[in-house]
Task: structure prediction
Amino acid sequence: MMEVIGFLMRVLLLKGFLKPFLWLFLGVKFKYQEKLDFEHGKIIIANHNSHVDALAILCCVPIRFLHKVHPVVARDYFYKTKMTRILAKLILNSVSVARNKEFKSPLAQCEKLLKKNHSLIIFPEGTRGKAGELQEFKHGVSILLSKYPDVSILPVYCEGFGDLMPKGEWMVLPFNSSLQFGRSRILAENMSVQEKTNIMKQEILSLAPEQKGVQHV
Amino acid sequence: MIFKLAKLSSLSVPFIEIFLGITGLLILFTLVFGLWNKKSPSPGMKEIVVRIYSWWIILFLIIFVFLLPGDFATIVTAFFTFVALREFLTKLEVTKHFRKTILYVYLTIPLQFYFAKYGSQHIFNAFIPIYMFFLIAMRNIVLGNYKNYLEFNGKVFWVLMLIVFGFSQVSFLRHQTIIGGYEGGSELLILLILFLTQFNDVLQFLWGKTMGRNKLSPNISPNKTTEGFLGAAFTLAAITAGLASYLPFASRWEAALFGLLLSTFGLFGDLNMSAVKRDLGVKDMDDLIPGHGGILDRLDSISFTLPFTVQYLIIRGYL
Result:
């Protein structure tokens, strides 16, 4: 019962309110290179600049797959208080990973979901970085991919989201930005973890629009 | 038939006449320039075809907005102003500083459009140039930082004037213009100004293409020629003189003078946006409509002719 209510709330919030809000008011353009399909498990990887990122990606997931896509959030940040915990569960439908060494296998929950053919949204940078800069990628996704080689990755580039709501700011302001979905692909099994991580970084960067040409700083 | 249409839509007869005339002209232009572009494509030609398409969109929007009742027109105009402002602010790197002030910059839009409809002429004309001038500075001072202070104040204030002050003039015309003895009403005046501004762009291109020798502003826009400008200005003056009975001016001569000035301001508006884009180092302000750029790429001349028209009407005592 709780799950059904949560699902309906998510549909209403994401499709009914958030997507039009992002598009009309904040000025986010959604661009796709292929039709989004989460029939089989996928890991959506994206650069991370603000809290808007995960919400914007979730907005684009078709309703029939919405229950199957889970953003991966940091346990120490989102599960700190009961309030954020409920919000993260209900609205984001999220799973958590521990960034510290609190648990033996921090990715256990993610693995369980991948086994069920569900999809994950992971920000390999691990934390929100500065707008326009890509930080060093963590290896979590590559480790997951080594265990589940038939899971494909779907690269996404969030452009300009750091301006909408930078780290440490709570005021969301409109600026033109875009969410660029790439093509999903399966990485070859025999690649090393480091190679996979490098390829993912390239995939995300290849979606970045041409240098905006802003000369003036 | 025209009378029937006028009764149905509560628009004046002159409005319907001009509207039908423009639609006919647009159909003609679409055919002629579309074929010309197919036969001998050139960058300038493509620009004109794109401009003609944007006319169609503007024309439909105008009709849509004028036929729907109440505040709809104001809200739609305010929304487009908002999109244009967002487009420009995105391109300004300086907005990363004094981020909290940007909220007030956006809030200017609902206030300015409220004043355009309900405010006095004074508050409408003073709100951005005077009140916002102080408010932006004061908000930044409260934020307590001086880095990029001058650059932020200068650029953001200028953008507010160009976009919010400029585009809100159309709502001011729509809601607060009652010109004695002018039966067309504000709808017709707006339609004519938008149309004449766009037509002026095409005239400049045509005169420049056939007679153009001397570049008017080689650094800012290499397509513009002195001959193109003069030819368009006098042609537009002849057109406004011919349409004098549809314009609110006292005499045919004044209508001609208005056409001449309108053409000049249109040229400056066009060059203004070109200079902005060149300074920013971008080709288009946005990629809202693929191939057509953003809103500001289409509304360049209008951003100067609209404020000019309102100020002209005020100075000459029509408002």
Observations:
- The helical segments of chain A are 2-26, 52-60, 75-78, 82-90, 108-115, 140-147, 161-164, 193-207.
- The mean pLDDT of chain A is 86.
- Chain A has eight helices and seven strands.
- Strands of chain A lie at 28-31, 42-46, 69-74, 95-97, 119-122, 152-159, 177-181.
